[in-house]
Amino acid sequence: MLRKDRIGAREVAEHAGCSVSAVSLVVNGKDSGRISAELRERVLAAVTELDYRPNRSARSLVTGDSGTICVVLPDPANPFFGDVLAGLGAAIGDGHTLALVLPTSGTDYDQRTVLRAYSLDSAGVVLISPGEPVLRGLVPRCPTIVVDGPGRTPALPRVDLDTVAAGELISDHLTGLGHRGFGYIGPKSDKPTFRTRRSAFLDRVAGADVVRTLDLPDWDPLAAAVTTAAVLPGWLDSGVTAVVCADDLLGYGVLTALDRLGRTGIAVVGMGDLPFSQLCRPALTSIDFGGRRAGESAGRSLLSWIDTGERPRRVRVPAKLIVRASSEKG
Amino acid sequence: MLRKDRIGAREVAEHAGCSVSAVSLVVNGKDSGRISAELRERVLAAVTELDYRPNRSARSLVTGDSGTICVVLPDPANPFFGDVLAGLGAAIGDGHTLALVLPTSGTDYDQRTVLRAYSLDSAGVVLISPGEPVLRGLVPRCPTIVVDGPGRTPALPRVDLDTVAAGELISDHLTGLGHRGFGYIGPKSDKPTFRTRRSAFLDRVAGADVVRTLDLPDWDPLAAAVTTAAVLPGWLDSGVTAVVCADDLLGYGVLTALDRLGRTGIAVVGMGDLPFSQLCRPALTSIDFGGRRAGESAGRSLLSWIDTGERPRRVRVPAKLIVRASSEKG
């Protein structure tokens, strides 16, 4: 085998019997529709055989590929973040490496996780739903965008979810249906996104006959169902007829609890519009925060910032109420 | 600000007024329970202020931190992979950076995505559910483990899901309940994991009265419900009384289709035991492939390989059948 430090795109091209630009297209993921599958296979075989490792700065000069874009988010198992990632991927395209830096312990990330993302020599970083301590004193080391961030993130451009509109849309919908007794279930969390979801809804129903709240220690919908089942009978006796949840996962737990109690006619509304909200029975009324659109917007802003050096503006993605059977008149 | 190339752990320690070992603990995520929250904040502030970027090889010498472990998987939105990631994170611990390299287009990855993972200077790589073309001719550039891989992956250690046992457990369960007419629904996919799920079940019920199959073009449970709703009446008329799905997501679609058709008493079984299988009604009988255990096993094997240089053995994670209401006698 040749010495690794002598291997360049030219050597790969010679080995594969093709042009340097064909190698460049394949290595940078821009070959789709431009070269044949057979040539692509030959280039990949040559890359592997010669152990060719494209040099990032050389790549950048030749192809405009700006390297790795790192994403940090709290919980890869929550489908909402899958939507945001899909939007980011679509906007960023195949010319960059998209890497998700995961917290290796616990269900949320801290500032060390962000420092690790920077240490991967990233061209850009996207921080999704960070807690306030993550951003406190953080000095960005490359273009960095916050999606669903706290109320104040002075140094960084943001893509916001409209968590205030979420609370208002839900309260208006339920009040319009005649409900006067409300329960609110959310996670025990300091995250600004959950504080706002809660306060926007509770402020709006402050004059209602009955308002009850429950803070859950975790996200597990089955645990939510069990805890909720314990408090629901008291809530219903006191006049609660509509239960609002900070996340659809918790909403599924409430639907299960109501089912086990044999109670019907209670309205349930979630937030986040996860895929199963269409499939569960009754289908769950929810807020579509536009996770995919938020991801696309963050991806586009980040690319433009990397390319032009110009800080992008703040963006707010509108929220929509999706009314389903769980909040129809029972 | 000092010149970046002069900044080491010593300078950070001086700035924060603490020991070099305290800096090392924080930077390597090993401070939990060993130093105060206040000291940790001070170290992080100094790291940020001085723009300290720990040198990986220096870190490795001092702390044993071997850097980044890269994971590549097809679809971050599928909750099964969330389980595998949680297991990997638990086994790998907070001393490494765990990074997920995502395909930026489409819903699966190819060999380029893997080459990108290698180009991040990884200490180890985990490839989850790769298709055969991903591994063809691939030369691993660091310890690399395959989870849920194809039947033959000669060069790489593997953690296997027991997809053969899955088909056998389901056929034995349904046959034991007296079913003699079966439908099988899976994705139109060349992935070995889906070929095996399908063949293991169909081989076992080859002598049944009726066997029908349906290949779906995508994973969307709502699309699955629509397509399934179109074929189900014919299947049921021909004597199908039990429907087996290659994945719980498809199972939710079948439950919805049966509900819309107003049909009861048809057994439905999924594979993967996703969280909602406990919550949907009827709760979905499924195969627990032990995703979390597979992730833990892959993480432990990889760390040991990195540390000792010794290739780990192949591991098979046992599958379990979780019987729920969807396959009880209707």
From TrEMBL, chains A, B:
InterPro entries: HTH_LacI (IPR000843), LacI/GalR-like_sensor (IPR046335), Lambda_DNA-bd_dom_sf (IPR010982), Peripla_BP_I (IPR028082). This is LacI family DNA-binding transcriptional regulator. Residues 10-63 form the HTH lacI-type domain. It comes from Allokutzneria multivorans. GO terms for molecular function: DNA binding. SUPFAM superfamilies: lambda repressor-like DNA-binding domains, Periplasmic binding protein-like I. Keywords: DNA-binding, Transcription, Transcription regulation. PROSITE patterns: HTH_LACI_2 (PS50932). It comes from the Bacteria.
